[in-house]
Amino acid sequence: MSPTFGKCFDPTGTTYGVPTFPWKFAPDGYATRRQLRARGLRPGGQSVAAQVMRRSRRRKAGVLVAYLYRVDQAKPVRPMTPGRAAALAKAMRARRTCPQCRTDAGYCIPTSLGMCVTCAYPQEQHAA
After folding, report:
1. How far is CA 71 from CA 8, 29, 50, in A?
2. At a CB cut-off of 8 Å and minimum separation 6, what does 25 contact?
3. Of 2, 52, 56, 83, whose CB is crowded by the most CB atoms within 10 A?
4. Cβ-based neighbour number of residue 10 at 10 Å
5. pTM confidence score
6. Strands 41-42 and 75-76
7. 97-115, pLDDT tens digit by residue?
8. In what order do the strands lie in the sheet with 63-70?
9. Class of residue 52 by CB neighbours under 10 A (exposed 0-12, middle 13-18, buried 19+)
């Protein structure tokens, strides 16, 4: 067993407080939030049941952790209501509207610019 595998293998949860498994070695019956969502489920208020870990050079702590939830305790995703759909459409419309020229850009305005590309770089638009 490699040293990394041994550090991430704690099925009883004595070291980290929850059962811990190496990346891609979680037992059946557990899923991440994304995996639950792909199945049409949500955690439904349950606490984290386990976690998977792996080494990461990008993370400051040196490990990447994904929390797992029990599939048998998961609940179905709530259906989209007309009010939620209207609120989502309004929020997306606000993200597409340029605050400078007040037009719908047809894409989400980059937060780095704060306005549509046409308003951010007007001299390049006239040159083309």
Report:
1. 22, 5, 12
2. 9, 52
3. 52
4. 19
5. 0.69
6. antiparallel
7. 999 999 999 999 999 999 9
8. 20-22, 50-55, 63-70, 30-31
9. buried
